[in-house]
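Supplementary Methods. Inverse-folding protocol.

Structures were first reduced to a discrete structure-token string of length 219. This string, shown here, constituted the complete conditioning input.
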């Protein structure tokens, strides 16, 4: 991996929307009786919120998240790079193990989390890239009870570093899907998937902050 990848931004869309309030937030499932994530989860004392991890938002003090009862379909729409399906299979498997959520690849366009690809200067479904170094953006919608019900991801198709066939491209997909599941950015230059920039030294698997935060929004 060359230094050209350093500093490429992975931005979460600033206009994450909140739907009108609905019923009270359901209680968090008893983690002792729920299916546990298969990836090891760091002790809370070893990671720091705002540095090693963050959440997209909170409702009643709890991180926004998807329902543990939901089957969450993730699918691509429109023209996508040839390696997209294989890359999605790989990163969704990682997130399924980290969260315990029922994440599946969609077979049609009615996915709960949608993935599109476009060029830098395009606007798709109200989403666009804020600058030339941005490789992907994501937004999630949640109701007044803090339960996410949909999310959209847009990734560059005119920059080879975002190609799902590459390790950087898979990093981008994992990062943006992290936003779709309720995670925010870490502090700059942290060894985490959710760091705001792609660092050649930290491309690969989930960091401790990633794993902790994904477990907290999981089941």
């Amino acid at each position: 991996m060359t230094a050209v990848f350093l500093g490429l931004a992975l931005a979460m869309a600033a206009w994450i929307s909140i739907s009108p309030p609905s019923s009270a937030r359901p209680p968090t499932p008893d983690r002792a009786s729920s299916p546990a994530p298969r990836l090891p989860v760091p002790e809370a004392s070893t990671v720091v919120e705002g540095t090693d991890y963050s959440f997209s938002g909170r409702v009643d003090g709890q991180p926004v998240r998807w329902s543990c009862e939901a089957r969450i379909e993730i699918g691509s729409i429109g023209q996508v790079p040839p390696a997209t399906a294989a890359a999605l299979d790989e990163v969704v498997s990682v997130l399924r193990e980290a969260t315990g959520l029922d994440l599946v690849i969609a077979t049609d366009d009615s996915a709960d989390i949608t993935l599109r690809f476009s060029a830098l200067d395009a606007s798709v479904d109200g989403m666009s890239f804020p600058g030339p170094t941005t490789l992907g953006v994501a937004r999630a919608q949640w109701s007044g009870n803090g339960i996410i019900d949909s999310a959209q991801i847009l990734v560059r198709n005119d920059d080879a570093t975002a190609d799902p066939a590459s390790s950087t491209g898979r990093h981008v997909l994992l990062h943006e899907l992290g936003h779709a599941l309720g995670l925010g950015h870490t502090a700059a230059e942290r060894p985490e998937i959710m760091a705001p920039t792609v660092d050649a030294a930290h491309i690969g698997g989930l960091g401790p902050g990633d794993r902790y935060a994904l477990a907290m929004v999981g089941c």
